[in-house]
Amino acid sequence: MPKLLDLVLSTEAGKRTRLSQALLAVALMATGVLVMNAYARFGIAPARPVWIWSAVSLGGLLVIFALIRSGWSHRLEDASMTVPQMVFSIGSGAAAYALAGAGRGGVFPIVMVVLVFGVFVASPAQMRAISAYAVAIFGAAMAWMSWRQPAVYPPLVELGHFVMVATMVPATAVLAGRLSRLRHRARQHSSELKEALNRIRELATRDELTGLINRRHMHELVEQEHQRCTRSGLTFCVAMLDLDHFKQINDNHGHAAGDDMLRAVAQEAQRHVRAADVLARWGGEEFVLMMPEARAALARGGLERLRERIGALQILHRGNRLGITLSAGLAEHHAGETVAQTLERADRALYEAKAQGRNRVVVAV
Question: Is 285 one of the annotated active-site residues of the chain?
Fold first, then answer.
């Protein structure tokens, strides 16, 4: 049984919900078809027109169900096709009213159920249009039948029915509109909450100035890489990067120039590291680059190219062209050592690069 339901309703959560709603509409229509055919059997409604109505009404909703199940409806704004189902079902209900004769009163509850379907999807404007359509098409059916068969559809009785439809259907549409606005407000609040949570998550893991991941998150990622390499037997490298004489930019041109330089360096570095590499702002003018599955020799080549790119970088600040150079200390993780020890060796190598004159890469022993 579960496999059959999966075959009919799909296993995709969103589509399954839409198909369940469409299948409920089919089931309600099937109930109406049974009632109408019972009327035909007992001579209340004409048999042949009822058979044609049954085939068209049930077949139309089955076609809509098939369009949803096949995925065709995904190209529509409303993938559940609720509004088309409502329009079709109300038209079918008006036809049933014209055929049902003395049993026509049973059509009204079905129309109200159809309108309830729109509460969860249709906008207030759509509900107003659908209610106007329902009043118009039922009014036309009542007028036509009271003219064609006044003995079965007495004009005064049909006038009373029309007043009821013209009152109840718009009232239902108004209530549906209010529910729609409440639903929209709830969705908006949910979206704002999700956005706020994403922002908090970003602030917890990202450096606000450069957009790079921050020191705390980088520690977590390096620890994860360390555990992965412990299991797999592979290795990785980390590099401590520092901008040379960065303080002079702040002192001579202001902190805004320093911020511009940090952002430019971060963007340039991101463009010239491997997709698997992870770059973080460590603090101040310091950065850390983690290079998974890389030996020191390969990592050094990449760092030298990065150093050259940063050395060629220039930014324009208040009419002045500013450049900067990069020093780097590189350490390949050794089996058995901790992350802290690997970072410490990279930091010592960076100190050695500074001592040797800056604008160079030094590999830790």
Answer: yes
Instruction: Please give the span between the terminal C-alpha atoms of the chain, in angstroms, as a whole number.
Output: 66
Instruction: Please answer whether residues 110 and 118 qualify as being in contact, where contact means their C-beta atoms are separated by less than 8 angstroms.
Output: no
Task: Name the active-site residue from 12, 285, 304, 332.
Answer: 285
CB 274 within 8 A of CB 217: no
Residues near 215 by Cβ (< 8 Å), separated by ≥ 6? 280, 281, 282, 283, 288
| Digit-coded pLDDT (tens) for 231-276 | 888 899 999 999 999 999 998 989 999 999 999 999 999 998 999 9
Determine the Cα angle at 327 with ends 323 and 332, to 5°. Answer: 145
How far apart, in whole angstroms, are the C-alpha atoms of residue 11 and residue 8?
Answer: 9
Fold adopted by 215-363: Alpha-Beta Plaits (3.30.70)
Sequence ranges of the domains in the chain? 2-198, 215-363
Residue 176 phi, psi (nearest 5): -65, -40
- Indicate the pTM of the whole model: 0.54
